């Protein structure tokens, strides 16, 4: 069965010095680099927001962390991050980008956020990730990246719902933990839908 390694949003703005910092977010890079040789297909997602995206607190005169309703669904207000063509949207330095076989851009619609690598948050538009994986005959995914409690979680949940056999490599992920317990809750949710949770050494030996 053909497997792919899916890198979720390993971008500068989610590194500890970025606009939306994830504690130790950069620490997953060497772990991912050790995993890469074990996979034929390396697919990466990028948060790729237009300037003034509706999920940005600055676009709504709101404080970061507040929740408002946008087009009928709750939306957390984030700092401006991963703006298209900005340094913050680039992959974190040191990541073996030469190995990446496909990049999928998400969050490009200015009105809807997109945590999952597969769909926007209202599931109105697909990113093309599922179509790409199907075109390559990929039925199994190992997911790594940032952040555990948002984009990794929603990507993993969607992967399972789309029929992919889904593994999440826990030591190759880090969380935002906006609220204490978010990361632990994310792991539980992923496990409940059928994701297999492993450590990188289970693959690298």
Automatic annotation (TrEMBL):
InterPro entries: Isochorismatase-like_dom, Isochorismatase-like_sf, Isochorismatase_Nicotinamidase. This is nicotinamidase. GO terms for molecular function: nicotinamidase activity. Pathway: Cofactor biosynthesis; nicotinate biosynthesis; nicotinate from nicotinamide: step 1/1. Pfam families: Isochorismatase. Keywords: Hydrolase, Metal-binding, Pyridine nucleotide biosynthesis. Residues 4-202 form the Isochorismatase-like domain. Belongs to the isochorismatase family. It is an enzyme of class 3 (hydrolase). Its EC number is 3.5.1.19. PANTHER family: LD05707P, PYRAZINAMIDASE/NICOTINAMIDASE. The gene is pncA. SUPFAM superfamilies: Isochorismatase-like hydrolases. It comes from Vibrio plantisponsor.
